[in-house]
Fold this sequence. Notes:
heterodimer, A: alpha/beta, Rossmann fold, six-stranded mixed sheet, 22 strands, B: mainly alpha, globular
Amino acid sequence: MAPPMLELRGITKQFPGVLANDNINLAVEPGEIHALLGENGSGKTTLMNIVYGLYHADAGEVRFEGRPLRMTSPGEAIATGIGMVHQHFMLVQAFSVTENVILGMRCRREPLLDRDGGATEVQALSAKYGLKVDPRARVWQLSVGEQQRVEILKALYRRARLLILDEPTSVLTPQETEELFEILRALASEGRSVIFISHKLHEVLSVADRITVLRRGRVIDTVRAATSSKEGLARMMVGREVVFRVNKPPARPGPVVLEVKNLQALNQKGLPALKGLSLEVRAGEILGIAGVDGNGQKELTECLIGVTRPVRGEVRVAGENITGLSPRQICRRGVAVIPEDRHRQGLVLPMQVAENIMFGNFYRPPFSRRGFLQLGVIHDVARRLAAEYDIRTPSTDIPVANLSGGNQQKVILARELSGQPRLIVAMLPTRGLDVGATEFVHRRIIDARNSGVAVLLVSTELEEILSLSDRIAVIYEGEIMGLVPGDGADVHELGLMMAGSKRLAAVS
Amino acid sequence: MTEILGVLLSANFAFASIRMASPLLLAAMGGLFSERAGVLSLGLEGMMLSGTLAAFLGSYYSGSPWVGLLAAAAAGGVVALVYAAACVTFRANQVVAAVGLNILAVGATGLAFRGAFGVTHHLHRAPAFQPINVPVLSDLPVVGPILFRHLFPVYLAFLLVPVVIFVLYRTTWGLKLRSAGENPLAAETLGVKVERMRYTGIIISGLLAGMGGSLLSTGFISTFMEEMTAGRGWIAFSAIIFGKWTPIGTFLATMLFGAADALQLRVQALGLAIPYQLLLLFPYLLTLCALVLVGRTQAPAALGTPYERMGGSRK
Lengths: 508, 315
């Protein structure tokens, strides 16, 4: 019997404070699609970065096609036949597709750059595997799905026999995901091996031959996909029973709280990002905005909270026109924000937990009197909220950077939800959180909705949208493609709208 | 006004523009390699100034400006090496490192010059480059005297432009260099040695900036004075930005700045009732305006950002 394509023996990797990989054993056979399943922080990506030569294991052995490897750089991994598609694409935006593919390789006419020859080869590869992309296009002009194809082309061009994909579907529509799976199956049928990193159970079950589950840096088990169930995998992944359905009573929508009319806005490059978008959110309901990243979600939320000024159109909160008001003025009208990137937008990492909790209110009594901060009051309030929102921190005066991602997100929730908002604008509120923290955030959002708050939930995770939303709107290139009820929404139909190939007539 | 117009149309002015542009051009072409690799070429001033002194010393002691030219390149290269070590290996803030190096260069060149010649008002002279009249071409009417009666480093500067274009855009090495400036992590994952590319880019900038400096002390004038570059390295840096990080754009920008310099010299000679300090200001004012106009949209995406390999340095 042939040796495994890749074999890991006793891989251990220690980071300061974390044992990222603890004695990992794993074997991937030729022609196999092998899924690595685990929560964020379970060590999947670290493990693959070791295989790819970006990190060095503290202990253990990597064997490729039966031979031990001692890799010190990705260059060596590539030369060996290992390709990796990273979660955040490793592409040079300013270069063409061909240039990205041939970068770092010897050209036929070395040292001269052979663009035409390269383009021909890229064309041939993309035709063979159905990876549709124009070799001469600049990467920044491509959609996210196309950029991913460029990443796969890069690996195939380097004759990768083992292809590692890190969370490849997080940027794709359901249809694009299915196309990707077809490509992966075609690669496997040629005898190549694929390692598919994911935390999405249904995807792993539908594409993988075998599944290895990681939890806290350890292998829990390796199982055959054909004989596994979603519940079983979830239990292994989280370490306890997981409730998939979020419990929520039927919505009792009240008056309109948020009204967006014909909103037009530009993105950072000065190109139109919102093209006359309209929507309404009522008190006591969650409106989910589904869509592939980069279709105007960022600009929409920024317009709502006053960070970006729309070119045209208006935003009303509880009947009042708030277009063009400052973020502070909007905040005072009861708009709470859970931003997309908690590190850059939601928190000031080096500052204290208490300080982060009172941002937005620090200038008001009782936190401030005659221009002086009332530290006693601030810490009292922070301690109370920390208890109420289950923020696990030794004290409220340590930097928020020292907290785990889940606890950091709770700091934001405590700040934003404790002020009795009328409207919550939540963007990817559970990004990077583990299952426990995700449940907590979802619970709080639903509690707020039950108490009559209007919630606008923007997420690229379709599952999150489906499980929380009372109504779902799909955004594509700055427009709403359609609006459907949350119950019994058809994933296939949503996918078509996310890809822009279907538009529902009655868009209210 | 008519007098200034007369200056602008004279062959003499065109000749002087080319002359004044060439030190800038040499330094800016070098700076492009550093910038495209992702490292700010703010250190050009210090590299250039070191080259100015080294050219003078080399020429003075050997009797040949050619030795001076090599010494200038070497001196620029050494300063660049220090800058590269700070920016690439130690991942220092590039602005701080460059400004520190530039100030150090002012002090060190002044000290070295005084150490060698003492503090005197006597002008020490070193052999300088002599104009090379290109056979046949230099006898052409109008263009001959303007284009083909220059010093060797001037020709070198202009011949460099197509070479830089070719190297940056037509070779695999150029692609790798630019990838280090656009997305070093992506480059690294494809086996490009980012740190090596950045070192190389910076050192090329030092070699060329040093040679640009040699024109000042062993070209147009044959002596050294403290702070002789007088901000030309900064202007070369600005030319890259004004030229939107392309060789052609940078070339045109240095020509514009060179012309501004030539113009202020000619206008001074006219003896108009304008204070000469104001005229001296002209090229710098133009630089400032140019920078305000451009913005930074075209810059290499990773310019100015130190690159740290994933998982720390190699064991």
